[in-house]
Specification:
Oxidized Rhodanese, domain 1; five-stranded parallel β-sheet; 10 helices; Rhodanese-like_dom_sf; transferase; Rhodanese-like protein; Rhodanese-like_dom
Length: 294
């Protein structure tokens, strides 16, 4: 239906407006947090459901926005009325460029949803004058057919797409580095020049990381750049074909760079460090934290 994980507003609108196959619905999913609900109510793609990242997460960790359990994901998708056969197109509920949507799309994929795409992006969609609607539809449930199962079947988390703190520590302890770590935070946070309001979070980065800030993969509209632009950026950063571990502040913006890697033809295995710096900066020893450009 869509040839790429990343789709333009024009392609989405053309196919969505002509789709009448209820056996494989195209569902626009607005990704955001509770603070973004007013933006969603003021303007969203017709037929959207709202994916609240403050609810669909694991509350039993001290770190924000961690991946929920399969049971939680299944329960929340069931509430929304989603089917495994749905074609999910995720966009940012607030017109902030590209930020939350790739993270939510990544979450769908790690739980085994097959047809998942990211709209590039809602700001451009609106600038093109494509249809939007208003209204409070947070909590809206998609219609079900008579006799349709009410439970969204959820697979276990695909561990090939995510990495834990302990597993990352084990990799760092290996003498032969068979992987590369990309940190998508701002350069000032990466080097340790800037810090966090929480004094328990140390400054710096994971040793051996390469800094590719989120802003460098986005254009002036906040959309992900073209494949050729991205390829040039990654080559200039010294990226190789080794497997990649992606990290950021809290596991959100790293997912955007994961999409950018896919779009620019990098087919190496990619794992997202879910706890990211909110975890690493709190629990690691000073010896496991680097500062400066290297």
């Amino acid at each position: 239906m869509f040839s790429s994980k990343l789709i333009t507003p024009q392609d989405f609108h053309e196919i969505h407006s002509q789709s009448h196959d209820d056996s494989q619905r195209i569902i626009p999913v607005a990704a955001g947090r509770t603070a973004h609900i007013p933006f969603f109510n003021a303007s969203h793609i017709p037929g959207s459901i709202f994916f609240n990242m403050d609810i669909i997460r694991n509350p039993d960790t001290p770190y924000p926005l961690m991946v929920p359990t399969p049971a939680t994901f299944s329960r929340e998708m069931s509430k929304l009325g989603l089917r495994p056969s749905d074609v999910v197109v995720v966009y940012d509920a607030a017109e902030i460029g590209t930020y939350n949507a790739p993270r939510v799309a990544w979450m769908f994929r790690i739980f085994g949803h097959k047809h998942v795409h990211v709209l590039n992006n809602f700001r451009l969609y609106k600038e093109l004058g494509l249809p939007v609607e208003t209204g409070d539809v947070v909590g809206h449930t998609l219609p079900r057919e008579s006799g349709e199962a009410e439970t969204y079947p959820c697979a276990q988390i695909d561990q090939e797409k995510v990495i834990s703190y302990s597993d990352l520590c084990d990799l760092l302890a290996q003498a032969d580095q068979t992987y590369q770590i990309l940190d998508t935070r701002t350069n000032a946070l990466f080097t340790g020049e800037d810090g966090y309001s929480d004094p328990s979070i140390q400054r710096g980065h994971i040793p051996g990381s390469v800094n590719i800030p989120l802003s460098t993969v986005l254009n002036e509209n906040g959309a992900i750049k073209t494949p050729s632009e991205l390829r040039a950026l990654f080559e200039q950063s010294g990226l190789s074909e080794k497997p990649v571990i992606l990290s950021c502040n809290s596991g959100v913006t790293a997912a955007t760079v994961e999409v950018a890697l896919e779009e620019s033809g990098y087919a190496m295995p990619k794992r997202l460090y879910d706890g990211s710096w909110m975890e690493w900066g709190k629990v690691s020893s000073p010896a496991s934290i680097a500062r400066g450009k290297e």
